[in-house]
Each structure stands twice: as C-alpha cells, then as structure tokens.
Design goal:
By secondary structure, the chain is mostly helical. It has 3 helices and no strands. It starts with 15 loop residues before the first helix and ends in a 10-residue tail after the last helix. 1% of the residues are buried. It is flat and about 45 Å long. Helix 1 crosses helix 2. It has a domain of 39 residues.
Length: 69
C-alpha cells in the first residue's frame, strides 16, 4: 500500500508568499553566479505574474526566441 507522503491540491492566493520565497532560494546560486541576484526583484517578478488559476506549465504558451550563432 503506497504511503501518503504528500497530496496535490489546487493553488490558492495564499500560496504566493512561500512560492516566491522558494523560487528565490532555488534561483539564488545561478543568479549570484551571473551577478544578478536581487532578492526583492526575484520575489516581485514572481508575485507580479502569479495567478493561482494558471498552472505553471501553461503560463507561457510561447518559447523565447533563440538565435543560432
């Protein structure tokens, strides 16, 4: 019988704070390596675009353009 370690549920507006904090913690090493880490900006960029009604996988329907050298 599988153990119930976690349960998925729909996102809510109350999730925004901890998700913004998690994003900042996870992205910090890469952004510091690039010399671009600003904790307030990382959090605000997430919070400005957060909508619990839109799943992350469908939030962006287009890929960024990438040029070949």
């Amino acid at each position: 019988m599988p153990s119930e370690a976690f349960r998925l549920r729909p996102a809510t507006p109350d999730d925004a704070g901890w998700m913004a904090e998690l994003r900042a913690v996870v992205m910090r090493p890469d952004l510091e390596r690039l010399g671009r880490f600003d904790p307030a900006r990382v959090r605000s960029r997430f919070l400005d675009g957060y909508s619990p009604a839109i799943p992350p996988s469908s939030a962006s329907t287009t890929s960024p353009s990438v040029s070949s050298p």
